Amino acid sequence: MAALVAVLASLPAVIGALPASDARTSAAQLRAAVLASAAVPFSGFAESAGGLDLPVTDQLTSVADLFSDRTTMRVWWRGPQDNRVDVVTAGGETGTHRDATGTWTWEYERGTATRGLPTPLALPEPPDLLPSALGQRLLSEATDAELSRLGARRIVGRDALGLRLTPQEAASSVRQVDLWVDGDTGLPLQVQLFGKGADRPALDTRFLDLDLSEPAAETIAFTPPSGARVRVAQEADVVLEAGRRIRPVPLPAELAGLPRRQLGGVPPGIGLFGRGVTLLAVAPLPARLAGGLRDALTQSPDAVADSAGVRVAAGPVVLMLVDPPGRGPYVLTGTVTLDALAEAAAQLPELGGTR
Amino acid sequence: MIAVELRKLFRRPRTWATIAVLNALPILVAVLLVLTDLAPRPGQGPVFLSAVFVNPALFALAALAIVLPLFLPIAVAVVAGDAVAGEAQAGTLRYLLARPAGRTRLLVAKLVAVLVFVLITVLIVAAVGYLVGTTLITPRPGLGNGGTSVSGTSLTQQELVERALLAIGYVAISMLGVAAFGLFFSTLTDSPLGATMGALAVLVASSLLFTLDAASPIAPYLPTRYWLSFVDFFRDPILWRDITRGMALQGVYVGVLLGAAWANFTTKDITS
After folding, report:
1. Beta bridge partners of A177
2. Topology (CATH level 3) of domain A247-346
3. Which of B148, B152, B228 comes nearest A91 by C-beta?
């Protein structure tokens, strides 16, 4: 009896320790394979675990939960414009169905179907945390000098080749990103993001089940059920409106040494700076949002408050509220160090910094 | 011998009292819902309770979800803990074993009786829930048909019935682990109360550890880990991942604990 229990209890460890066979793929080849894998159809089950406690307001809890909680996702993927990702919770789920014309998001808990149209700016959503989508995004701007090969590891019963991305920007708060890539298809099977000075990943997302056959189109299609509330997503519009109306002042071409990125359809008052995994977003904020955010930030024990503003770091993600008197607040957020954040805040126009 | 044990179990007034108490809570919930007309929003309160105003038949599942976390396991633990220790405490165990039937057969008979109790209890709770739902609750007009899955797709009435039956079966299977713990502890002690409390202590510990992030490495092995997965039958497509794991986990617990109960009971000195 004791032997049987011992065998049963040790099975997971034994299976997990099965050796994975490495391949002689170079880091650059592996990156190319990952970027080419967006069209690989699959279905599966993924789990992402974040260790980031973002102190944010009620309006942004969904984003905060994304980075601080364990998120389990079912996914059916026929292509970048034809997929479905369900975030599964114990008593409900939130499913995002995407097609070429936009997205349908079904929230069982609210009985609401939300139509989302493509916008130039979007808040992070659960589908962005899939190992495949996240890996493709993080590698999209990586240079060969930033990449190196790791060994191999077995993930969901497949040989996964290791690839490490070490960002070169001094301002970056990300120490490294470890990706484990399926050797056959180039799909990233696990992505671990490490902040500077941390041993444990700040974000760890991986597949737990993976099936490489093409899922059926009717699984992905969505029609709002009768009786459901149907609405149109407005979150992105709020941010864009704020950029147009509240602060039409153009942002500089460079902040804290990070060059500005060109975004189509985004007003000049909103800026995204940096490259690859080192990014800094700057946007003016409606005053009613800023008040709640300031309260949340100052209540955080790690918050740094000085003349430049209130700022806080949750692992590699930083958040800062700059509120010059009588002018309206700015929010800065991204994956940069706190020092770089303060430097960037000082360079904002109208704040007495370098114009 | 199995028939004898079953007759003994279901002739006891306390068996039926247990089942009656188990049904009282869902009925109270239904009455309150009808009186106040306040259904919880989807995702809040017990699972499926929000949907009963759309499809009153779903109250069968809501009733199960109401008793699943605490009432149902307590009832199962009481009956399973009583199985052997109850005979020992009443002083009847040695007379039972004086028959030429053997200890293994007695244990198997007790086990079957407990399993039948689990199945009948789950079925009665579901049936009473169905009756209460369809008689007390009038569906609100204009909310569409009741066949909307958790994933937002439409289910036909037939699909809904099939999935409800599967879910009822899964809840019954989920209770087998509790029954196995109760029966095992029942062979260790002469006190039925001790055996029941032992089984409940395991469940409370398991439920507590499941909520703890630090315990996530052992979470897949906790007996209560997959209890709520009967919800997965109502996703579209059905999410079998946790359901199959839940059934396998209950199977391992039942196998190991019944083996231990058998090994303990067949070699035990019967003193009472």
Report:
1. A165, A193
2. Phosphorylase Kinase; domain 1 (3.30.200)
3. B228
